[in-house]
């Protein structure tokens, strides 16, 4: 367990001082994966769309003095590079109750319906989420969680929590936490846009208590094996090489030669860590990079052909066809939608 009880009784839980002013739920949608990534307040993120079709993302977010809670929904499978602000912990809870659904991966590790994900702030991590995915997120300042745990007579094993990626929790504790989050982010809740509240003392305390209940019943998932860590390194090295040579046509045999692994080993590494093949990955990372380049539009003289060449696509008609299949629009449409 990540919590231990002190022998001496503690005072009743008191919430920390709150800022003045009204609070309300912020709801925003996006039709581009990277736009959606930027909508989450105070996170450093970039998203690569994996599955074909138009992207649609929804975010409902509630900021509290020492905490952020949100519900994120994505229509397509996405690879996410994420980083939370320092001196905080992020907890992720899959929003679907159906245990038969495909689960997300954190740093290559496949979660399950009875687990939650966790990562400390200022530490980059990777998520791979499937089609039609919903995830509740809680970001809590470390000192705030420490204060409430201390008042409850509990001590948190911070070293184990910081090193954990997947925590197995009891179903009642997880269900109670999900119900609390769903209620807070509901449009019918007292914190909704139609009826903002001046104080979030009770909601913040409710989330803290739900989190401590889960941590009190949690078990850290088994340590990552050396072989899995090696597969993670190979995938990371492959990504770095592709991005460093983005204007070149990188092939799987070339990757194998550069990384000193067999084709079978490379295939196994990608399927185990990301759930896709190296060939799929090579195409997806370059197409997402080209889309990002097109939509940034840093130069007024930028053309689709320029961007295609910059990302190693020399067969222009094939690039346009693959681009439309993945994103549901042509490269020229993305260029016209570029951000200013």
Automatic annotation (TrEMBL):
<keyword id="KW-0804">Transcription</keyword>
<keyword id="KW-0805">Transcription regulation</keyword>
<dbReference type="InterPro" id="IPR018060">
    <property type="entry name" value="HTH_AraC"/>
</dbReference>
<dbReference type="InterPro" id="IPR018062">
    <property type="entry name" value="HTH_AraC-typ_CS"/>
</dbReference>
<dbReference type="InterPro" id="IPR009057">
    <property type="entry name" value="Homeodomain-like_sf"/>
</dbReference>
<dbReference type="Pfam" id="PF12833">
    <property type="entry name" value="HTH_18"/>
</dbReference>
<feature type="domain" description="HTH araC/xylS-type">
    <location>
        <begin position="236"/>
        <end position="337"/>
    </location>
</feature>
<protein>
    <submittedName>
        <fullName>Helix-turn-helix domain-containing protein</fullName>
    </submittedName>
</protein>
<keyword id="KW-0238">DNA-binding</keyword>
<dbReference type="InterPro" id="IPR050204">
    <property type="entry name" value="AraC_XylS_family_regulators"/>
</dbReference>
């Amino acid at each position: 367990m990540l919590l231990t009880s002190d022998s001496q009784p503690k005072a009743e839980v008191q919430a920390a001082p709150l800022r003045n002013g009204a609070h309300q739920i912020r709801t925003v949608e996006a039709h581009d994966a990277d736009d959606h990534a930027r909508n989450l307040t105070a996170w450093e993120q970039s998203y690569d769309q994996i599955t074909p079709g138009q992207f649609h993302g929804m975010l409902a977010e509630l900021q509290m003095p020492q905490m952020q809670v949100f519900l994120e929904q994505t229509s397509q499978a996405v690879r996410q590079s994420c980083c939370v602000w320092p001196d905080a912990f992020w907890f992720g809870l899959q929003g679907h109750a159906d245990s038969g659904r495909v689960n997300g991966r954190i740093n290559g590790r496949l979660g399950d319906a009875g687990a939650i994900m966790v990562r400390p702030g200022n530490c980059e991590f990777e998520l791979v989420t499937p089609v039609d995915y919903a995830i509740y997120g809680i970001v809590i300042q470390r000192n705030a969680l420490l204060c409430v745990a201390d008042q409850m007579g509990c001590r948190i094993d911070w070293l184990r929590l910081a090193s954990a990626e997947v925590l197995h929790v009891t179903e009642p504790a997880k269900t109670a936490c999900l119900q609390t989050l769903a209620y807070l982010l509901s449009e019918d809740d007292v914190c909704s846009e139609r009826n903002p509240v001046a104080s979030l003392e009770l909601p913040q305390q409710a989330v803290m208590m739900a989190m401590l209940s889960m941590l009190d019943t949690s078990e850290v998932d088994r340590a990552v094996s050396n072989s899995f860590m090696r597969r993670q390194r190979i995938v990371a090295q492959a990504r770095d090489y592709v991005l460093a040579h983005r204007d070149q046509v990188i092939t799987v045999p070339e990757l194998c030669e550069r990384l000193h692994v067999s084709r079978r080993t490379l295939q196994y590494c990608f399927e185990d860590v990301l759930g896709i093949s190296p060939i799929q990955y090579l195409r997806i990372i370059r197409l997402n990079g080209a889309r990002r380049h097109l939509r940034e539009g840093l130069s007024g003289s930028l053309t689709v052909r320029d961007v295609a060449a910059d990302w190693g696509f020399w067969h222009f008609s094939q690039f346009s066809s693959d681009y439309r299949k993945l994103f549901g629009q042509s490269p020229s449409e993305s260029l016209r939608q570029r951000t200013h």
